[in-house]
Amino acid sequence: MQLPPSAHIHMIAICGTAMGSLAGMLCERGYRITGSDTHVYPPMSTLLENLGVEIREGFAADHLGSPDLVVVGNAVSRGNPEVEATLSRRLPYMSLPEVLRDFFIRDKRSVVATGTHGKTTTTALIAHLLTQGQLDPSFMVAGIPRNFPRSYHLGTGEFFAIEGDEYDSAFFAKFAKFFFYLPEILIINNIEFDHADIYEDLDEIKKAFRQLINLVPQNGLLLANSEDPVLAELLPASFAPVQTFGLAEGAYWRASEMNFTPEGVSFSLRCQEERIADFSLPMSGTYNVRNALAAIAVGLHVGLTPKQLCEGLRTFQGVKRRQEIVGQVGGITLIDDFAHHPTAVEQTLLGLRQTYPEAGFWVVFEPASATNARATFESRYVQAFAPADHLVVTRVPRPERARTDPPFSPERLAETIRRRGGSALSIADVDEVIDHLTPGVDPGDIVVFMSNGAFGDIQHRLLSALQYRFGSEI
Do 295 and 334 share a domain, yes or no? Predict the structure, then answer.
């Protein structure tokens, strides 16, 4: 779609992470951006206001004005007054991934990181490595990469790195966002069942990834986790060359001789078993080693040297809310993490156990995703939380998202873990959780918060409570 440089674009549900980033990118292109949302608060509202974006609270037909284009967020459905006005007035409209493709990706070489887990960190790491290698890539990350001032960048280089989400695109495009991103280099970290509000079962997700694989051109590259059995079934569908990465022998790119310390992990990189270089990554967990392998493979494919990539990996600071240390007080460390799928939960906790092997381990879990409103994964969480010494499960913040499916029960999960000899409580209210933890945690303990939601800012509120308990300065 062609728009004049000063065109007016209105964005419905502008304050989501991805929509807010897209608004910033469009502002950089010179478009006049307006938007509306029901959740207008910092930091996103402040970011958008600083960019000169006019934001209106709530949804109303007169918020539209006379836009040249309407961008409809994927959380918006029919019945929204701005959607209805857009359709009635026959205004041009697009989904977020369509805009990304047509306005930003089409003229670039697209690097798309996908998978049920790890795509945000992998995308951020690729962006950092290419930047450190002086390639000035464009990128958009569904999180805040700590090496950059914001979650997006419009670079002068030829590459665009983006996270390929399998969630749907808009009410009028009920299929995965990643279909729009024109992957030349495609990374697939893993494939599991998730998004029970969108997909019926694993077979539907496999179908989506099979179709995605079929979009990679013959002169492109598919990088695939060698240890994922579901993904292995789909690789024969690729017309592009396939290179695998992993920790087991047989992977094209393999990490060997791993050594985990409180500072992170070091490993040797092998290509078809030939040793290439030694790397250090300031993050924990074998799953992050796999993320790093995928990013290194991208860097080598586009011409960066092992020396450049070693330095880039060493200086990677991660992504906010991915094993982010919120604070330390009285010998107690508080860590915030976005993990919510049981596999991601288990892998994150095992990685943190490697980093803090002697610590008392508390985990506070908010079942905030649409899938977690359902009982779909409830039994799997029993094993996922096994690395924890103590578990606290809070209430489901939006139980209506279970629709007609059996609902998730925090009480039942906690009871099941207790029956098996574990320590687990269901405490619905965030204030009560803080009251329970503040006197209960001891010096040397680790408290890990796990949620893909806001979690009532429990992380910083507990930090303040512990600072008061220990008489520390905030």
Answer: no
